[in-house]
Amino acid sequence: MAILIKMVVFDMAGTTIDEQNIVYKTLHKAILNAGYSVSLNDVLEVGAGMEKLQAIKSILLKKADVTDEQVALTIFADFATGLDHAYSNSEIAPQPGALATFTALKQKGIAVVLNTGYSGRVAKTIVDKLGWQKGREYDELITASDVSNGRPAPDMILMAANKFNVEPIQIVKVGDSVIDIEEGKNAGCAMSIGITTGAHTFDQLQAANPDHIINNLQELLELI
């Protein structure tokens, strides 16, 4: 018997939103400002999809062998200030096909949920800048600020499931990073789908053993 999908949980930056890697470029700059030599590729490889303080800690540990909590907090403060400036001076847009995909899903009675490793404040800044509204473009927004455990823990997806009274097996997760795929699998989603429009390449996504990899959002409609 086919599983009835009732919800799709989408990552934001790189998946449904094209923000030209503003967040990771700003994070990279903050780490460089602190005197640690890491590349943007290092930042994307290790930190994509994570809650951003945890991303900084993971990058410092894996790429600079640094474990000092205060160093991470100082970099995070610099990052937060830089991100406010970057977003106020940058253009962002929906990924191609995002709004059409949302509309098609909602017409099928499938809830559209956004989730993100960003803080609630940053995520709200993004959706406001796009002019997206809850109940119109999307049905719910759940951020790293809303849960105790960020990705790859399943907390954000399980919170969404609880809010809409659906089972994880009725949910599809879509994201552009390995940690998105891991999050979906840890939640017990029907499908965890990678998309090649953001942080990680096809080969990087494939290493996480997703159920599918798509190249654009409208390909999702063929799978549901």
Automatic annotation (TrEMBL):
Gene3D superfamilies: HAD superfamily/HAD-like (3.40.50.1000), Putative phosphatase, domain 2 (1.10.150.240)
GO cellular component: cytosol
Keyword annotations from UniProtKB, A to Z: Hydrolase
GO biological process: DNA repair
A GO term, aspect molecular function: phosphoglycolate phosphatase activity
Matches recorded under InterPro entries: HAD-like_hydrolase_sf, HAD-like_sf, HAD-SF_hydro_IA, HAD_sf, PGP-like_dom2, PhnX-like
PANTHER family: PHOSPHOGLYCOLATE PHOSPHATASE, PHOSPHONOACETALDEHYDE HYDROLASE
Protein's UniProt name: Phosphonatase-like hydrolase
Organism in which the protein naturally occurs: Mucilaginibacter pallidiroseus
